Amino acid sequence: MADRPILEVQNLQKHFNLGNNKILKAVDGLNFSINRGETFGLVGESGCGKSTAGRTIIRLYEATGGKVLFNGEDIHAMQGKDRQKLTRNMQMVFQDPYASLNPRMTVGKIIAEGIEINGLYSGKQKKERVNQLLRDVGLNEEHAGRFPHEFSGGQRQRIGIARALAIEPQFIIADEPISALDVSVQAQVVNLFKKLQKEHGLTYLFIAHDLAMVKHISDRIGVMYLGKLVEVATSDKLNAKPLHPYTQSLLSAIPLPDPEAQKQRQRIILQGEIPSPVNPPSGCPFRTRCPHAMPECAATMPPFKEVEPGHFAACHLL
Amino acid sequence: MEPIAKDKFKPVEKTTNADVIVRPSQTYWQDAWRRLKKNKLAMAGLVVLIVLTVVAIVAPMFSSYDYKTQFLKDGNLKPSAAHFFGTDQFGRDLWVRVWWGVRISLFIGIMAASIDLVVGVLYGGISAYVGGRVDTIMQRILEIVYAIPLLLLAILFIVFMGPGITSIIIAYAISGWVTMARLVRGQVLLLKEQEFVLAARTLGAKPWRIIAQHLIPNVIGLIIVQITFAVPTAIFFESFLSFIGVGIRPPMASLGKLISEGAGVMRYQPHLLMFPTIIFSLILLSFNLLGDGLRDALDPKMRK
Amino acid sequence: MAKPVLEVKDLRVSFKMYAGEVQAVRGVSFNLNKGEVLAIVGESGCGKSVTAQTLMRLVPTPPSYIKEGSSILFDGKLEITELTEKKMEQVRGAEIGMIFQDPMTSLNPTMTIGAQISEGILKHQKVGKTEAMKRATELLTLVGMSNPEERVHQYPHELSGGMRQRVMIAIALACNPKLLIADEPTTALDVTIQAQIVDLLRDIQKKTDTSIIIITHDLGVVAEIAHRVLVMYAGKVVEQGPLNDIFYNPRHPYTWGLLRSVPRLDSDNSKELESIPGSPPDLYAPPVGCAFAARCPYAMEICKEKDPAHFDVSDNHSSACWLMHPDAPKVEPPVGIGGHAHG
């Protein structure tokens, strides 16, 4: 039986009104779906709207337009009890290991918060559950009484993961969870994400700017540029045969940790800077930096079409 | 190189935990207290304030004089064992009158702090937390209040209600909380976009929980610092009104009133000016020193 | 052979904190030759940034202080650790240029970029304002900015992050310094912009033959630009050597861990990433013996008792690990390390 995707994002839009008739179209028409148990990576450079997309999906922001279906139900139409139920099933891990934990709360209290709010356990059971969660993320009971500032970035991020796991969600949005960490610690956290996925059958939306790391953890990847998806494919396909010129240059820009290979590699170095999302170029947003730009690109936005089965891209060249 | 025994090169089982934390644990308040203790001036301010408060409470109770009874034949006495600070022209004991003045100053200070705490914190907090249109409207109201000169307002109240502590406090209540409201609003605006608050929201936390658990504990330091600066301002405000003759009604003594009376006779009876002025300056200085110390101790940005 | 541009010997820097002394840099020694690009890599808190800033004497004292016995000899004659602040001001900018991580906060928002570039020229060289401005325009061309004549009149807020970093590089280069220190110059930038900046640094190095010290945690950037690599851990150098030796024949378990934890586009997704368990030690109480022992899969008894000396792998490649001792068991680097160059 073909399962319905756990999350379907349909033409999602999030615009911010900046005043003076300026509108920031942070997310402008996203379409993708995530299957149960998979990891969907969302990559792009700063200002591309990937974090806004994540926050709009979990309804920290109200959408300007479009739908987000979670298990077939529209998240943005939920009220009261239903919304509480959604909360239990969808959680988020944040980017900044320093800002994402309340500095005045002990780690034990931070992790227990979701359990308390949702009335899952109390008293001794709650304490046992917190200890279990701490062990799950590689920390121990002694850490429960300490404050966030006593931990390193990687340890804090693990605490953030334990907090999200505390209410046993099905789906976790990880918003650049490793960007602020050191490489060896990044690997630790990514491995932890993978381990927990196996143990708890989790589905992830993994947002990041580091394509190499995203490729490692994701089954499928969506590439965003200026509020729009430009390409979606399985991570192997995306790496082996990127279709969109932006994806190609993004892959090419990542320096390989291998001096010889690096020397032999032909690299596309993009010229120019990312345009402001307040005043995006007409037509295809990438055309101002695209090495293959044609007159047509300025006129119309290329459709987001299925070029090969499961491989979508938005480019006039295709 | 000195030789090393061969058996030292045996691989060992992993026994150490690299996640162990070696630094001693310290809560925010322990850390703040440690910083404050290191600040000698702030500690001096704190000690002086405690001493002044205790004496202000105790001294009039154990004196055989009170602030209002006149002993006209004992007028204008120099300081002595019977009258530590001497007497004024009506023979009233200055020692007792000064400590009554301190009582009034501290009372005004406490009232100002309460108003700041209740009105300022609530107003600023609600304005920032609710945000949007509510915030805009509340900010416009605040600006209007801020535009009214405090002195004018106080004199207006005194004209209508007669001079006295009540008029002064009401005047202060109307506009004294504005600074606090602005500070709290700014801080809450920052905090509510912090990821830990967003995390609480995604966990399903209700507004009251976010306010009680996440916002208040993180603005409390700022509030305390602001209060220690607001108190001397209010004390000064009352003394100033009393000094120009529109504050406390005689025979009640306030430091401003005493200084004003002392200033009139300062050529002949300098002690009448000196004692209240010294005590008054000590109070203001101590509050300011303590406030500075608290700001350094509680400022989360300086914390490492 | 010519004298090295920089000779650092047993550099120790500590911070006085309430809880005690945090030993951020614990005995770092290295040389930098003319025209060489040296990369200092390591994770946050390993002391790489403190080392770099100490070379410029930019770490405020107190709380930090350079310990007795440390030596930083610049250009064979200037002992940086002993210079007065006034003398140091003449060195900064003129002899040593610095590029910071965050181009947003390291530029003065109230000055035009032309003024900021010519500031250093006017201070250190005897030239007039027009001449300095002309030189600023040339520098902007050198760092690849279009319309330099117009750019000199712009303010930092009118530029994007990548452009600001270019301006920072122009400022650092203004007086033709003998040494350029780049502290995480690409960390705050997007990948496509990162590539532009690394490319630019490499170009400039080739054109001007400046010596560069680049501080980074990104091994990809290292692979692209460095000639020699210094790997730091917990305030010490654990391994140093030529670029290819560090990448293809590393001898320290920490370097192995570091290299293996970087995901590669061509790696297998199903495999777990290799990570180094645990966290780096708190340098408020550095462990006895090798600082990496608690996280090292090959730790021996000696590692927890004595700090390893630097063992030479070859002439210019050394590793501070007891595994290099002749009596130690032979440990081969884990799979995935080495062999790439020829395999």
Automatic annotation (TrEMBL), chain A:
Keyword ATP-binding recorded: yes
PROSITE patterns referenced in this protein's UniProt entry, alphabetically: ABC_TRANSPORTER_1, ABC_TRANSPORTER_2
UniProt KW Cell division keyword: no
Domain of life: Bacteria
Keywords, alphabetical: ATP-binding, Nucleotide-binding, Transport
One Pfam family from the record: oligo_HPY
Domain ABC transporter: 7-251
GO biological process terms on file: peptide transport; transmembrane transport
InterPro entries per the UniProt record, alphabetical: AAA+_ATPase, ABC_transp_ATP-bind, ABC_transporter-like_ATP-bd, ABC_transporter-like_CS, Oligopep_ABC_C, P-loop_NTPase
Gene3D superfamilies attached to this UniProt entry: P-loop containing nucleotide triphosphate hydrolases
GO molecular function: ATP binding; ATP hydrolysis activity
Protein name: ATP-binding cassette domain-containing protein
Species in which this protein is naturally found: Cohnella terricola
UniProtKB/TrEMBL annotation, chain B:
PROSITE patterns, alphabetized: ABC_TM1 (PS50928)
Statement: the UniProt record of this protein carries the keyword Acetylation: no
Pfam families: BPD_transp_1, OppC_N
Keyword Glycoprotein part of the UniProt annotation: no
GO cellular component terms, A-Z: plasma membrane
Protein topology in the membrane: Multi-pass membrane protein
Transmembrane segments: 41-62, 104-129, 141-159, 165-184, 215-237, 273-294
Protein name (Swiss-Prot/TrEMBL): ABC transporter permease
Subcellular location: Cell membrane
Keywords: Cell membrane, Membrane, Peptide transport, Protein transport, Transmembrane, Transmembrane helix, Transport
Gene3D superfamilies, sorted: MetI-like
Primary site of residence: membrane
GO BP annotation list: peptide transport; protein transport; transmembrane transport
PANTHER family on file: OLIGOPEPTIDE TRANSPORT SYSTEM PERMEASE PROTEIN AMID (PTHR43386:SF24), OLIGOPEPTIDE TRANSPORT SYSTEM PERMEASE PROTEIN APPC (PTHR43386)
Family note: Belongs to the binding-protein-dependent transport system permease family. OppBC subfamily.
Domain ABC transmembrane type-1: 102-291
TrEMBL record, chain C:
The organism's place on the tree of life at top rank: Bacteria
Keyword annotations: ATP-binding, Cell membrane, Membrane, Nucleotide-binding, Transport
Major subcellular site: membrane
Cellular-component GO terms for this entry: plasma membrane
GO BP term, pick one: peptide transport
Keyword presence, 4Fe-4S: no
Pfam families, A to Z: ABC_tran, oligo_HPY
Domain ABC transporter: 6-259
Gene Ontology MF terms in the entry: ATP binding; ATP hydrolysis activity
Protein name: ABC transporter ATP-binding protein
Organism expressing this protein natively: Cohnella terricola
